[in-house]
Description:
- By secondary structure, the protein is mostly beta strands.
- It contains one helix and ten strands; from the N terminus they run αββββββββββ.
- The protein starts with 8 loop residues before the first helix and ends with a strand.
- It holds the Pfam family Lipocalin_4.
Amino acid sequence: MKKQILLFAFLSFGLFTACDSDDDSPEEPQQINENLVGTWYIDAMIVEGEEIPYNDHEDCGKDYVEFNEDGTYRQVDIWGCEEDVDAEGTYTANENSISLTLTDSEMVVLDIVTLNSETLLVEGMEDFDEDGEEEVVQQRFTRE
Length: 144
């Protein structure tokens, strides 16, 4: 069974659609969902309805992602009780999705299931158990 290090499947699990951003169209104003702004801590993964609670190095703190008002974000992992910036870039968000642009122009689109003042729940398809078939995978984040 997979080690239960969840480490923000935002980017590492391929839950979400990624594509290169070679579009030369003029930039549109950034769309920011105000509910998203702030710090979100990983809480659990839900795979095909089965919840897998976050339980990795909690004595040092939980991994988290920060969404800033200026349209930037950073994903921070806690390793050996020290923060490690795993990813950073820009984002846009509406009521249905979050689009993250990485520094190498790759874009990751996350489907939003729930977003309120306390909970962020995103969903996608992933071959979580590595059996060749994709499962519905959700990740839940909280404000703490």
